[in-house]
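Hi, here's the filled form for the chain we discussed.

Project: internal
Contact: R.S.
Residues: 168
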Amino acid sequence: QAGVGTGEQWRRIGRIHYLRLNDYAKAEEAFQKAVAIFTAQKDLPLRDEALLETGLVKERRGSFEEARKIYRAVFDRAKSPKAALYVANTYWFEGNYDEAFRWQRTALKRAEETNDDRLRLLCHSTVGLSYWTLNQHDQAIEEQGIALELARKLVSPIDEAAALNNTG
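And the returned structure, exactly as it came back:
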């Protein structure tokens, strides 16, 4: 039986296919192998991460409803702020801003409850981008400002640059 390390390797392979090679079929296959290994090992947090990555592949392929089902299942089980944010993103990509904002608020609430500043940063940045999409620039700038403060608190130059770029 494969161990957790093997599951992590399948996740790495999946990310290479997803992020670098744009080979979504092979990425999804690798992530599903990781899910199976983590499920057998009863490592639910790693299984959920591999499931979220599977959802990202489906999202990239335009299968938003399939991705949302995965994200919602992870959210329902683990109350993951990342899963809620991913649900919000699928609605945003589809132009369903009411649902996007609703899920963004859910993600932010969970990130605050778990003291996850990294996820709080991503939530505020995403909310800001949603406002920008709707030409609500004052709200967009306010949200990006919060993201910028969090990036500086976390000493994350890449997130600081992203918040400044989004503000611009």
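Let me know if anything looks off before we file it.
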